[in-house]
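Expect chain and fold; see below:
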Amino acid sequence: MLNFSAIALLDLLARRVTQAFLTLPDFHDWVVAAILALAYTAIALPIGFWSNFLKLDTVTSRSTIWAVLVGCLFSPGLSEEIFFRALILPRPSEYASELMLWFWGGGSLALFVVYHPLNALTFYPVGRSTFMNPVFLLLAAVLGVACSIAYLQSGSIWPAVALHWLAVTAWLLLLGGYRRLYG
């Protein structure tokens, strides 16, 4: 039987997810997300090309392109943003202190980065060499910071989902990610 504190926690988490989905970003939120996407690109491309982690390699199969575009919306887009942002990070309406935002933001980021190699070791073995690559983990950390800022600034899951989806689909379809994962 659940005790009162467990019920309160479940209620808080359900409210966070519901509000994250129902909060619609305004124009300013999308501008911030676009700036974060440009900043992520400005960081990720030089690091990725310098380390040879990224390579210009375009996927041309229409069925693969559609599968990646749609599939990445759900995973990692929605699934990871629900868990690592909406469930963990305080909502603006919770009026968390700056210290608490740093605490939960740092914890969320650490979990987000560690999740990838753990996922490769358990449920997604095809990603093992990629998800354990230090450059991948660095780029994942930078993406996690960008997605967290987008979420905390807007209170909506949608800008973070869009950022995550855009970064992963660009990597898979244009920058060698698909070949790196699937040969």
